[in-house]
Amino acid sequence: MSNRPFFLEKNARFVADCIDMHHSGLGVVKVDSMVVLVKDLLPQEKALIHIMRVEKKLAYAKVIERLVSSPYRIESICPVSMACGGCPLITLSDEGQSIMKQNIVKDQVRFHGLDVVVEPTLNSPQRFHTRNKVAVPIKHNPFQMGFYRLNSHEIVEFETCYVQTQTQNNILEVIRNYPHKEELVDVKHVVLKENHDQTQMIVGFVVSKLELVSKSSLIEVLSKLKNVVGVVAHLNVSDGNAIFKGKDIVLYGANKIVDELEDLKFKLSLQSFYQINPHQTLRLYQKALDLAKLSKDDVLVDLYCGVGTISLLAASRVKHVIGVEINPIAITNAKENQELNHVENASFFVGDASDVTNILKDLDMKADVLIVDPPRSGLSSSVIEQIKELGISRVVYVSCNPMTLCANLKELSSHYDFDTIYPVDMFPNTRHIEIVLVLEIK
Ligand SMILES: C[S@@+](CC[C@H](N)C(=O)[O-])C[C@H]1O[C@@H](n2cnc3c(N)ncnc32)[C@H](O)[C@@H]1O
User: Fold this and answer.
1) 133-261 architecture in CATH?
2) How far is the CA of 14 from the centre of ligand 1 (A)?
3) Average pLDDT over every residue of 347-374
4) What is the distance in A from the centroid of ligand 1 to the CA of 285?
5) Is the CB of residue 209 less than 8 Å from the CB of residue 272?
6) Which fold has domain 13-68?
7) pLDDT value of residue 3
8) Which pLDDT tens digit goes with each residue over 302-336?
């Protein structure tokens, strides 16, 4: 027998209150044990809604008439934002986004039974044109380039994307207007990666086959644009959703741009991870380094170090820094960056984070401070066990996923104290939030 209320069926209409926002950006309405996800409905809003589809435990609806508006609702500046799934919070003011992101973290803290204060979100000073990297899906016959409609693989095309920089929008326009689309049939994504002052960009084509694109005269067209320093094909023959799962082949110029943070320079390749909002990167790192309270006698381990940004920014404050990262291309960049910035007291290793104990043993070093910045999956149980066994006095945790962060904190709480979480907004207009906190050994 279904628990569904009798009136909850396709085409039903009723007045509903939005109590939360789903991670997809849809408003959440509760009807007994059923959840109704409503397009363009914000928390605190009341509306007459129309049920579009009913599934076992979920239903989907649209707004017919908004009866009470959120005090944080604003007009979207993007004409395709209601179709495109890229910016679910675009109709929330800065203050509204800040509160929502703080609450997302608070919910996880509460769910995991942690006793910590969640500070107000450190907002991005700029809310549009913030990303230094984008990956834009492409479909063929007919050619379509844009982002996916929410919960689908249907492409929503755009002229200007407001999360991208104008230079990125200009490059996409060149590709969109290129007449010989038959040369691009093997391209699945265009990936653009640029430095913060937008003077250098790599244009990446993720392809299932190399032949046609490598001979395309689009490469010559792109090579003439003054900010394009490299055109790179990424050969990915897998069927899965991962964009990068293969190797890079340089078609023009170099697979490298140079960015600056403080007085340091960082070389980056198409595939290596780099924080995507240049307006917030240093503010995030500064917070992490302040919390680390580094001193000249410290050995610092930077686990999940990427191209060595945190390691190299910290190097002048410590005796030695050890960076560990699984992606060999990122470690090649990290070593180049070390040389470029004449840093002598850093060592970088390709490895899984769970190699940390062995790496320290081989170096005959003991870590005083650890910074971890894992991917969304968080720390593995092996890494958590090793952190506890190594007995490192201070651990700074940088996380892009409040759920895995809080689960990891729960496990670490037997050995570490922590009291304050700092959310930093690296991803305006989305529900994503970066978090940083310090753990002190008990
Ligand atoms: C969120 S990024 C942080 C990078 C760097 N701290 C920064 O701010 O640019 C996470 C990094 O962890 C790396 N990574 C993913 N899984 C890993 C693992 N099991 N062991 C070591 N590194 C890993 C990724 O390649 C990526 O560079």
Assistant:
1) Beta Barrel (2.40)
2) 47
3) 97
4) 15
5) no
6) OB fold (Dihydrolipoamide Acetyltransferase, E2P) (2.40.50)
7) 62
8) 999 999 999 999 999 999 999 999 999 899 999 99
